[in-house]
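Researcher: I'd like a structural prediction for the single chain below. Treat it as a standalone chain; there are no partners to consider.
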Amino acid sequence: MCDASDFAVGCALMQFDDEGRERVESYQSRQINPAERNYPVHDKALLAMQYKFRVYLLGEQTFAV
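Model: Treating it as a single chain, here is the predicted structure.
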């Protein structure tokens, strides 16, 4: 789950447990810089996703799904 505004981006990594309930694995947020404030809404949402999942995309951390 990701969200973005004119001031910040944020994400929550969710996973279903063995009983089918959705659980939060981690939260992450940060302020956006002045250049990023000019991004269109869909790019801000992508910025939020890239920010949250960068460690997984770069292979810096192993994880099981």
